[in-house]
């Protein structure tokens, strides 16, 4: 392949495999400890595995939930890890603990999403149509009115406000009482959510193969269509100017620079052989990782307009379930359908 | 990339039709399969075994307002998660509530990329409460839709209903859905392989085995089988809706379904012959197309003589109850049939949900067919629940098979015609279908 040199470990370009490990069931979610020293993986068998980031040594393996784990979230200070599962519970774990510090019941079948407020003061979880909020010590804080249908995604806008997406709308809720402050309605099923880091734009992928976004200041909305598949993954870069979207076997990148993206052409990043399953920007830069059903993992350096240059590629493996950059933006973890957990170092461009 | 898809059966039917009993039976049977159940009716009756997941029926309509894009959001999420544990499940059963429209459930398996890649809709099984369904049909849309969508219809609770009413019911649901396999059951006792492993949506499976899938339209509506000794009998009829009625009496080797059908084939040929007009008092000739003349008011009696003891099937143009048809022995004792069968006939139903079967010889022009189908589905797709068929396209060596749910159409060439006679068979199941217009539309596509 021109411009790319094959390196040890099967990677190409800038990617070098640091280690590979295996979990016992289908891995569903992955996150780093905020200091980048540990990698946590939750699987469909309910096991929470913790690996040393440096060499992949197993640090802890614990049966965390009956049924599968659905989401993981480390607290911003790194003290706790929250896990959410099909048993209707959120559990709080201290680093390397084998028993949970607390078990928070969401009183519903599945808890699909869990997220900490940026200041760590509260924990939010989505279970069915309900948003549950707890204080950092695990005391229930609020559970507002339910949504009209299952919450498909959630994100904290700031430490006082949380955003949810679902069928029919995006809702902004008060973190203190769970009450709805604002609702952005849309007749359609919103399946993914990305909030720009400057909190000015809310973008959602929709079941009907479109991406819908709102400018928060004005409430104006726009729709981007033409996706061959549902855009289940979305990612904003740190500057809030680039939105990468899945929904095809290429990545579509919209630039919000200038007056865009309305009336502009998106950057199209081609190189995967199957549908994109995961997208992630490295912190502090316009470096995007994209992963697909064919096991490919590509790393791109993007321009301000959203065009991209391929800087690294791993083209082998099983369908990628999730990817995540380490906090330093120097390594990327991926989990795949065959239970593999891998960390790839991503060297800097000269 | 391609892996075996996990088969999914949709189990539908009104509350009380016996879904939970059937589910429990399926789960407890020793079939060696690991089955996951996605159910909607919380706390109705507990399911004994297996993984059971509660779901809200979340209907996702799309911003474009297209009904065929409507899917079940809860199923997408649950199946997505189940797939990740797929090594633990061989089969998935989705139970829907009595008031559910099966359309969005079925469409989920074609419209959602992930679900479509990982799961294959195996079939839609509708349980019908034989005792209450007629009331339900009269009062709800959903009941008719559930019958219309079904690949398998189980008339359950047959023990609570008179056989004659069951026949009437079977005729009625057959008129609504000409494609479904109909089974009768009490207490949900149905062979498992009639419910799962149907491959009803698999074009390779569904149509390729059979050269014909349309039920032949018989010239008779009813048959009754009587076990008779040698001797003299009297066939009696009261006043009925018509001045005459055709009948064929044939001997049968047994009273089971196979023998009845074989007898039916013989009778079809006999019915094609000129009838022997028979006045009251004149004997019924065996194995002959007779036309009983019924203009005289009051009870009409036709003697029937049996030489060798055995089973005799009476294949009658109309239903026995329409003329209060009965058979007595020489002493006037009323005889009960040992078996009865209602045949699919051109029977008038007032149901708005019906099946239209079209069988036409000849080849069709591919372009005209394409235009006709596109227009038809665009205009009438909402009312067409299911369709299936095969088509002989001019210039193509292979049979073209297709099936559809609402506006979703799936079709492709299947196997070479070879020695088989080329021809076309199509069945539409839907609401307010215009048979004449459909047939004319299709005929206009002939090359």
UniProtKB/TrEMBL annotation, chain A:
PROSITE patterns: WD_REPEATS_1 (PS00678), WD_REPEATS_2 (PS50082), WD_REPEATS_REGION (PS50294). SMART domains: WD40. Pfam families: WD40 (PF00400). InterPro entries: WD40/YVTN_repeat-like_dom_sf (IPR015943), WD40_PAC1 (IPR020472), WD40_repeat_CS (IPR019775), WD40_repeat_dom_sf (IPR036322), WD40_rpt (IPR001680). WD repeats lie at residues 62-103, 192-224, 269-303. Keywords: Repeat, WD repeat. Transmembrane segments: none annotated. This is WD40 repeat domain-containing protein.
UniProtKB/TrEMBL annotation, chain B:
SUPFAM superfamilies: Hypothetical protein YjiA, C-terminal domain (SSF90002), P-loop containing nucleoside triphosphate hydrolases (SSF52540). One of its GO terms (cellular component) is cytoplasm. InterPro entries: CobW-likC_sf (IPR036627), CobW-like_C (IPR011629), CobW/HypB/UreG_nucleotide-bd (IPR003495), P-loop_NTPase (IPR027417), Zinc-reg_GTPase_activator (IPR051316). The keyword Nucleotide-binding applies. Residues 353-446 form the CobW C-terminal domain. One of its GO terms (molecular function) is hydrolase activity. Belongs to the SIMIBI class G3E GTPase family. ZNG1 subfamily. PANTHER family: COBW DOMAIN-CONTAINING PROTEIN, COBW-RELATED. Zinc chaperone that directly transfers zinc cofactor to target proteins, thereby activating them. Zinc is transferred from the CXCC motif in the GTPase domain to the zinc binding site in target proteins in a process requiring GTP hydrolysis. This is Cobalamin biosynthesis protein CobW.
């Amino acid at each position: 392949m021109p411009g790319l040199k094959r390196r040890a470990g099967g990677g190409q370009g800038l990617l070098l495999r640091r280690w590979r490990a295996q979990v016992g069931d289908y891995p569903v979610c992955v996150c780093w400890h905020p200091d980048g020293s540990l990698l946590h993986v939750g699987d469909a068998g309910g096991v929470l595995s913790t690996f040393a980031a440096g060499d992949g040594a197993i640090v802890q393996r614990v049966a965390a939930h009956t049924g599968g784990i659905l989401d993981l979230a480390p607290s911003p200070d790194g003290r706790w890890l929250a896990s959410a599962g099909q048993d209707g519970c959120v559990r709080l774990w201290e680093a390397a603990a084998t028993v949970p510090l607390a078990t928070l019941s969401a009183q519903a079948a599945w808890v699909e999403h869990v997220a900490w407020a940026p200041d760590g003061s509260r924990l939010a979880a989505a279970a069915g149509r309900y948003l549950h909020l707890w204080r950092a010590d695990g005391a229930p804080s609020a559970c507002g009115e339910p949504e009209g249908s299952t919450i498909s995604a959630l994100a904290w806008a700031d430490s006082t406000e949380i955003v949810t997406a679902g069928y029919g709308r995006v809702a902004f809720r008060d973190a203190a009482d769970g009450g709805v402050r604002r609702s952005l309605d849309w007749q359609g099923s919103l399946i993914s959510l990305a909030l720009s880091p400057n909190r000015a734009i809310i973008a959602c992928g929709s079941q009907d193969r479109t991406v819908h976004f709102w400018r928060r200041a004005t409430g104006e909305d726009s729709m981007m269509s033409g996706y061959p598949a549902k855009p289940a993954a979305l990612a904003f870069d740190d500057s809030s100017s680039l939105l990468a979207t899945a929904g095809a076997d290429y990545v579509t990148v919209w630039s919000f620079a200038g007056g865009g993206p309305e009336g502009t052409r998106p950057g199209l990043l081609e190189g995967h052989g199957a549908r994109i399953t995961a997208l992630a920007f490295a912190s502090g830069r316009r470096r995007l990782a994209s992963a697909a059903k064919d096991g490919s993992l590509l790393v791109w350096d993007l321009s301000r307009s959203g065009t991209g240059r391929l800087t690294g590629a791993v083209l082998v493996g099983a369908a990628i379930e999730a990817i995540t950059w380490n906090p330093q933006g120097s390594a990327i973890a991926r989990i795949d359908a065959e239970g593999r957990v891998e960390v790839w170092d991503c060297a800097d461009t000269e | 990339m391609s892996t075996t898809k996990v088969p999914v059966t949709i189990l539908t039917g009104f509350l009380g039709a016996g879904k939970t009993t059937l589910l429990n039976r399926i789960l407890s049977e020793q079939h060696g399969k690991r089955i996951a159940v996605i159910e909607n009716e919380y706390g109705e009756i507990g399911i004994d075994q297996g993984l059971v997941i509660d779901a809200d029926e979340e209907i996702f309509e799309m911003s474009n307002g297209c009904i065929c894009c409507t899917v079940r959001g809860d199923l997408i999420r649950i199946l997505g998660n189940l797939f990740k544990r797929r090594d633990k499940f061989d089969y998935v059963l989705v139970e829907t509530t009595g008031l559910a429209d099966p359309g969005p459930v079925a469409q989920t398996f074609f419209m959602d990329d992930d679900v479509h890649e990982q799961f294959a809709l195996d079939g839609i099984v509708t349980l019908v409460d034989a005792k209450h369904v007629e009331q339900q049909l009269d009062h709800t849309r959903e009941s008719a839709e559930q019958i219309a969508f079904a690949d398998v219809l189980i008339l359950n609770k047959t023990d609570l209903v008179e056989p004659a009413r069951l026949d009437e019911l079977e005729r009625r649901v057959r008129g609504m859905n000409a494609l479904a396999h109909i089974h009768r059951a009490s207490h949900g006792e149905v062979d498992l392989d009639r419910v799962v492993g149907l491959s009803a949506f698999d074009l390779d499976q569904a149509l390729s085995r059979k050269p014909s899938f349309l039920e032949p339209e018989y010239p008779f509506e009813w048959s009754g089988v009587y076990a008779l000794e040698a001797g003299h009998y009297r066939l009696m009829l009261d006043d009925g809706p018509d001045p005459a009625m055709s009948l064929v009496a044939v001997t049968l080797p047994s009273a089971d379904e196979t023998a009845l059908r074989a007898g039916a084939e013989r009778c079809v040929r006999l019915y094609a012959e000129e009838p022997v007009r028979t006045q009251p008092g004149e004997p019924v000739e065996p194995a002959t197309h007779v036309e009983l003349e019924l203009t005289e008011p009051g009870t009409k009696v036709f003697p029937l003589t049996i030489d060798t003891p055995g089973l005799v099937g009476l294949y009658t143009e109309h239903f026995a109850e329409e003329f209060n048809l009965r058979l007595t022995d020489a002493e006037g004792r009323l005889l009960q049939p040992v078996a009865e069968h209602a045949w699919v006939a051109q029977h008038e139903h007032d149901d708005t949900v019906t099946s239209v079967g079209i069988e036409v010889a000849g080849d069709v022009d591919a372009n005209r067919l394409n235009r006709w189908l596109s227009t038809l589905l665009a205009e009438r797709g909402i009312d067409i629940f299911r369709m299936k068929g095969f088509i002989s396209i001019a210039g193509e060596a292979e049979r073209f098979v297709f099936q559809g749910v609402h506006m979703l159409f799936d079709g492709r060439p299947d196997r070479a015609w070879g020695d088989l006679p080329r021809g076309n068979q199509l069945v539409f199941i839907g609401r307010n279908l215009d048979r004449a217009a459909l047939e004319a539309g299709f005929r206009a596509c002939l090359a």
